[in-house]
Specification:
By secondary structure, this protein is mainly α. Helices cover about 45% and strands about 5% of the residues.
Amino acid sequence: MFHKTLRFSLMLTLFASCATREVAQVETTEVVKVSRIQKDLIEKDLNFCDTCVIGSVGDEVLKSSDKKTYYLHGAEHLNLDNFYFDIPVVYNKAVKKWIRYFTGRGKATYRKYAERAGRYGPVLSKILNDQGLPRDLIFLSMAESGFANHARSWAKAVGPWQFMPFTGRRYGLEVGFFLDERRDPLKATVAASTYLRDLYDRFGSWELAMAGYNAGEGKIGRAIRRYRTKNFWKIRKGRYLKPETKNYVPKIMALAIIGKNLKAFGFENVEFKKALDFQEIEVPGNTDLYKVAQVIGSDFKEMKKYNPEVLRWQTPPSKKTYVLRVPVGKKQAWSDLEDKSVVAATDYKVYQLRGYASLHHVGRKFKVPSKVLAQINDMDPKKRLFPKTAVYLPFRDDHKPRKDRLYSDLYEKPRKSVLRRRAYNRWIKRGRSRGAKIENPKQFYIVKKGDTLWDIARKTGVNINTIIRSNYSLVKRRMILPGDKLAIK
């Protein structure tokens, strides 16, 4: 679905806008050819608003469109250039707080985000519009990642739309060892469009759809049932949603209000990054990007910039072919290459077994999935291997895996809070299986500030596993807090 949507002809149309908002003209026949009709369409589609982040459209366009629009009431005194949006916007205390932040302490951050919009804002906006969604949802991507393809949260959300692995796969994005399409701004935007449409269809509100994108549809569904309303601002007053979600929707609104009125908020002369014009080439699976770059007269860093979804130094070995994007003008050199086998990925690091082992053991040692090792070694992952067997590792021979950024996701250390939570979960699991449940408890302990389950067990003389088993409904959800009432006898 995604590859059909994102064919080369569409890509040329989407990316034929540059930061100065002029359509790039290329002379060579083999390079991008933008017809007069395409040029007019691009200019009509994207060149609307001189005071907007690239990819946004101003009042004139929105008022004449057939989409539902929303007027920003209460902000007339700001003398803005644009008051119309295709997502709901309000000018209340929560939104004002974020406007103050992004025009104050966060001004440099906003400028950086806005500059990045020059590279991908037009294509994100067009995909959203073509999918029948509001263009102003590009500000949700701005809130999520600042339009950074390599953005990665502590919770392992990745890419310009910050998809979690499960949600990304659910919406058709490949997430694996060699490829992570959550980083591809085009494919990820198509997936995000589908997800946001599903959220809107479920809740009937863009505010709740945006909140659901942050907290998950289950959380928002439960909030609606708990407060018996589909009004986000009423739900926001309750304690059920986390502060992050309560602030998420106002933040997007603030980004959009500023993004359509850059000059009014003091963002003069934003230097938008230049859009990436590219061509596509089809290469065999397991192709070395370093070798392709050498053939076409480019470099590895540039290849990664054009193909952010390729995680390593080669295309996925499991695919028969793979479509790579290359800078405009570089396709001919690839077409002229007669023997495509010269770009095969062969420069693997080799590990020699010291004793009997399997690929499973090697994978654990180097933090590489055994199925990946099986793929590149053409071996059964469970097969017993003899000493001195040579095993190819998915690292390039001239790389230092634990120091090279290409493999940072394999060797990164979890945050302390994540490690604490994992340790806590192990204790809870052990306590549930080993503890004796107190039936009809008559004695309770009120948790004090600084108490841990271990402290309470020591103070009361009650086995910690018994405390966990008897209070499982509480401790399975979260760590204990001051004021909690725990059964101990």
